[in-house]
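Message: I would value a second opinion on how I read folds in token form. Give me a protein, with the fold worked out from its sequence. Write it directly below this note and I will take it from there.
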Amino acid sequence: AGGGGATFRLRALDGGPLGLDDPVSIHPLSAQQSNSSIVFGEQFLLKVFRRVWSGVNPDLELLQALARIGFEAIAKPWFALEATMAGETYSLGMLQTFLRNGTDGFTMALTSLRDLQGDLLPEADGEVPTPDRCEAAVLEQGGSFLSAAGQIGRLTAEMHLALSQLSGEPDLSARALTADDIARTVERIRGHLDVILLHPDPALESLRVHREGIRTLLLRMGGLRPSGMAMRVHGDYHLGQLLRTDAGWHVLDFEGRPAEPIDVRRAHATPLRDVAGMLRSFDYAAAVALRQQAHPDEATAGTLAPYGRAWARLMRKGFLDSYLEVVEETGMVPSDPNDRRLLLSALEVGQALYEVEYELRSRPEWLSIPLEGIARLLQEATP
């Protein structure tokens, strides 16, 4: 079909024929998301991209490539909705498998934390518990998510192994990480920091205090010897991008960070960028759960906060251990543990700066979450 100088088409992707239940129910997806989605017959989901640019959308591009090599932990795409205008093709949307009866990972993490806090609330009188006591309580009362963290680590490793095997086009094929890749990442994070600090909000004073610490960490990152691979990555990886269904875990939305330019979203990067995003997500879940339970100034928060940090610490370790167990001998990530830790620390700070920008724009009352995270990361990364 055509109109207004544009030609529209529904392009069939790889796969077999489709069949819909009869009669077909049609309803919009109510979950909060950056695109518009309509469910057909509880079998298929039509995702319409709200932001359109010339060329293929990364979500469609990577889902199609992953489905082609047999990676099953995704919502398989079946059709692409496209427009052609003035010789340029634009991705407008896609029809993909609808993942029924799913719960996202962030909701599951908050449930685990609420269960832990519910057991602790009767004795939350402001006393600060020891780290050992906190970890013991998490393992006894709130450790139900620990097995999920390990599963997510393995899923992430399998996703990266699949992404490393994409081939046929330079835009998809993995390659060795270079010094230029590291330098570009350092400059992007440093530039992001400088832009954020132009904001006059007094709540950013703690970030100004840590500016030199961040720059020193980035300087150390820039001096790393390149090791591992550069590949297409998820780009906006966190617990909310995972869906647990009866069939297991699935990864959603390979579109990248909505605020980033398309060339950045489609750029090759170390897979540790996704790992850093997930590590931050465990910290975020603990901070959000605490805010849902108690005001930061209440005595209750003084008791519960260390338990939340212990929860995050154990989940981060379970996730990372499982991830590295799969990828350590693949050459995808730096083999030197010290280099790997330094790279992860810097990438986590970069992720936290993205969170700062998001909270400034959307939820200023949550700004302290990423700011406190940056302070902890810098303390832990001090040589």
Remarks:
- DSSP finds twelve helices and twelve strands in the chain.
- The chain has a mean pLDDT of 91.
- The chain has two domains: 2-97, 103-381.
- Residues 299-327 form the longest helix (29 residues).
